[in-house]
Structure formats: C-alpha cells, structure tokens
Amino acid sequence: MQDDIFEISGKKLSSRLFIGTGKYASDHMIPEVCKSTGACVITVALRRVDFNAITDNVMKHIPSHMQLMPNTSGARTSDEAIRIARLARATGCGNWIKIEVITDNKYLLPDGYQTAKATEILTKEGFAVFPYINPDLYVARDLVNAGAVAIMPLGAPIGSNRGIRTEEMINILIDDIDLPIIVDAGIGKPSHACQAMEAGADACLVNTAIATSENPILMCKAFADAIRAGRNAFLAKAGATSQLASASSPLTGFIHNDEGLQ
Amino acid sequence: MIIRINGQDLTFDQELSIQNFLDTKNISINSVVVELNQSIIPSDKYPTTWLTHQDNLEILRFVGGG
Q1: Residues of A annotated as part of the active site
Q2: What is the pLDDT of residues A183-229, one digit of tens each?
Q3: To which CATH superfamily is domain B2-60 assigned?
Q4: How far is Cα A20 from Cα A42, in angstroms, rounded to an integer?
Q5: How far apart are CA B13 and CA A83, in angstroms?
Q6: Spatial distance between the Cα atoms of A255 and A215, rounded to a whole number of angstroms
C-alpha cells in the first residue's frame, strides 16, 4: 500500500494522531510522546507569565520538527480568540490556530457563532484556522464558507474521556463536509480513536487520555496503533453486514455426511 | 508611575522599558510575546519601548494545552 499521507494547509503529515501538551505529570515526557507516536502536530495554549512561580517552558520540550497548533483556550468571544491568535502568531510559531471560544464552564462546549466570526476574520489575515465545534452541520457549513482548513468536532466534553458520544452527528460531517474532519475532545481510549477513524475521520486530537493515563508512553503508542488500525480499516472498506449468519467455511463435505457410502 | 502588568497594578519610580522589566524578572525575550495597550510589540522594539503611567502590559508564553 502507498504511504497514506495526510496533507493539510500545504503540510504533509505522516501521522493522523494530533497530540496535546496539557496535563502531563512532567513536560519531560513530551519528547518521548512525540517520538513514540510519530505525531507531527502538537497543541499548546497561551497564558500570562506568572512572575511569582518558577515554571518550566513547555517549548523546550517540543521537538523542532513538530507543527505547532496553538489554541485560543480562554477566549469567550470572537474578539478574544482573534487577539490570542495574533499573539500566538507573533511568537513566530507559524500560522496554524485552533479556535476555541467557550463561555460554558461546566461542559466547556464551544460557541459556534463566535467561532465562525473569528474564523472568517483570521482566515482573511492568513491564518490556517482549525475550529473546535459541536458537530453541527450548519455551523460546519458556515466554517467552510469562512475559510477553515479543517473542522474539529467534539466527541464528548473536553477532558471527559467518555468517547465518541456524538458519533451520528460526526458521521454526518464526514459525509457532507468537504474539509478534513479531525475529531477532538472526549476521546478516552484507543478504541474510541479507532472508531472515529474507521468511520472516516481524517485525524484525531488526543491529550487528556494520554497525559492522564498511568503510563503515558505506553498509552500514546496504543493510540498511534489504534489510529493506524482505524484508518486502514476505513481504506479497506468493511464487508457488508446482515441479520442472518453467513458461513465462513464450506457447507459441503461434512464428516457426518454419509450419503456417499450407499 | 503605575503600570498594569498581567492584570496587576505595579508602581515604578524610574523610567522603564519593556526590556528593563523583562530583565528584572529574568525572562528571555525568546520565550514570550508582549502586548502593550493591546498592540503587539516586536521583540526588537523591547529596549526602545518605554512604559508610561497607566500603560497596560501583557506578557504571555506558551504553556501545555490541548
């Protein structure tokens, strides 16, 4: 089989597993997670420097070949998301930006309208915009029109590890939206990621499930395997299903069949 | 003069550039991005950008996130 390269915004990616950098017990694990997964894309957040705390610089731990995807977490409006995006780009990290606009602190569900507004403006400013949304067809269509380079629908609330609870709605986006679909949030186990990829998602972003497992290095490898398995299964196209059994072995030549002895 | 830095009002007696402030906190210019009164300041302008009373300075950096 030819290499299954995922190209997005002019960048060829050899892995369909996008990883985050949050919640690790130690940021020192990040290089090994990058290496073990073969991931090419990694997310970071932008925050005020805390002058009263000695904090590690996460950027020291991110291999230079990784494509950075800063997020706009903390933004409550499109204007705040735009401000964060511009600041992120000013660091020199490139023009990729994952738009998150959230005002709901209980479920951290994204605001589709504000997200679309930010996407439209940032696209015009030359950003490659990856909007994080509820898997809503109309919001996704608005984002296509606004110039997004991919759509990032959630499987379940951020950090919940509850799996692809929005499966049917994500499947509609996969079917109808002519942009890469990157499932983000809620993926708690490799089987969840495999399920999304089998259904035809183009990639998955996984952070909490890896970072908070007891063995992040082993878990990230499991996720990389699951993403490959799901992708290969999608490309191979599953066989037909049926209500009744269909024998896999021949229905002739049984040992108890004595018709031939007469 | 009083300058709001990362949401906190701080008082300074002497003239202060962005570079001066970063130096007092041992912050490498390569690890941060700086916004003054909602305008992004290029790092090569830190030594020559002088802070004035009631300026609003934001100094940010990347942290772990998903």
Answers
A1: 98
A2: 999 999 999 999 999 999 999 999 999 999 999 999 999 999 999 99
A3: Beta-grasp domain (3.10.20.30)
A4: 5
A5: 31
A6: 51
